[in-house]
Write a structure and sequence with these properties.
The chain contains five helices and no strands. The protein is mainly α. The protein has one domain: DsrC protein, C-terminal domain (Arc Repressor Mutant, subunit A).
């Protein structure tokens, strides 16, 4: 069963997240998860646990480039995975709050 979400599709309770929930959220958002998606989802979850806040898109890209390499730390790559809004959708599928910089 799908946990409770906000009107924008973010989990109400972050503790409800697991990979099965991420699969359900991806399905609702019409995203077919691949290993590349999981890499970014786990990256943003680790980032949030470490820093206790969500980055801006620019900081997100730089952090990915530093950790996963320049080929993944760029907006073109992230838009291939999350076409609508990479940071917002990665956070949504990772069970994190909506980034404050996203409309």
């Amino acid at each position: 069963m799908m946990p409770e979400t906000t009107t924008q599709g973010f989990l109400v309770n972050m503790g409800d997240w697991n990979e099965m929930v991420a699969e359900q959220l991806a399905e609702v958002n019409k995203i077919a998860l691949t290993a590349a998606h999981w890499e970014i989802i786990h990256f943003i979850r680790d980032y949030y646990q470490q820093f206790k806040h969500l980055p801006t898109m620019r900081v997100f890209i730089k952090a990915i480039a530093k950790t996963l390499g320049e080929d993944k730390g760029n907006s073109r790559y992230l838009h291939t995975l999350f076409p609508d809004a990479p940071l917002r959708d990665a956070c949504k599928l990772a069970g994190l709050p909506k980034p404050p910089t996203c409309l």
